Write the structure tokens for this entry.
Amino acid sequence: MPVRTELIEQLVRATEEVFETMVFRTLTTGAPIDGDALRPRSNVVGLVGFGGTVSGLVALYSTQEAAEEIAASMLGVPREEVNGEMPDAIGEVTNMIAGSFRLKLAERGETLAISIPWVTVGSDFYTKYSSDVQRSMCPFRMGDSEICVELILTRN
Amino acid sequence: MRFLVVDDSSTMRRIIVNTLGKLGYSHVVEAANGREGLDRLATADVDVIITDWNMPEMNGIEFIRQVRTLEKTRETPILMVTTNAAKADIVEALRAGVNSYIVKPFTPDTFREKIQAVTAR
């Protein structure tokens, strides 16, 4: 079953706002993809959980290069000067997307609490979720890089 | 003007410290959670506190409640920088003792305006 369209729209808007105001980059938004057939190539995954009237996860997928570009842009430094700060920056971006998403849902009467973010960085891993979830992947282009934000909802 | 910046994200602390620097404020003490924030306050005098809400060990609300029980920080202006911006969140933060509020994501101009308002108190 696809994720409710209005939830996806809120997540897309939240992502665009965060990149515009904190990463100083304008994203080009692609068409959302439902289900779990397609997964982006990513070395960096940021996750924030939420629970309440709806429950699930917001996940940000990025390549190492794009993640470093995001961190550099947030910090106002060249990419070469981003060292150990990249995971923290990705965690913060994911946190802001989830927080902004939560706020948009709160305005519609939904009540959610969000977790602190966690970030996985590596070259040979995949993220497996329970099969009993609804998933929708939102692809974005940031210059030459693709990043994806996924909404994963439990079926309650 | 001396600032205490409490945030578990080193990225956010750096963004805040850089923005304060651009406004001419270079005296900044940093802490990664509320517990560390209280430790810093035990040894440093600050004029303004900027704190996140969601942090491990001690969150921003608990930190602010503790800050307001201390004689030397009972009246210190506190600016909260957070993604928690539902009406109920803002009410909770104000009850805990926050003076001003910035919702993440924020523009540099918004941050500048809030800092100027808080430091003008």
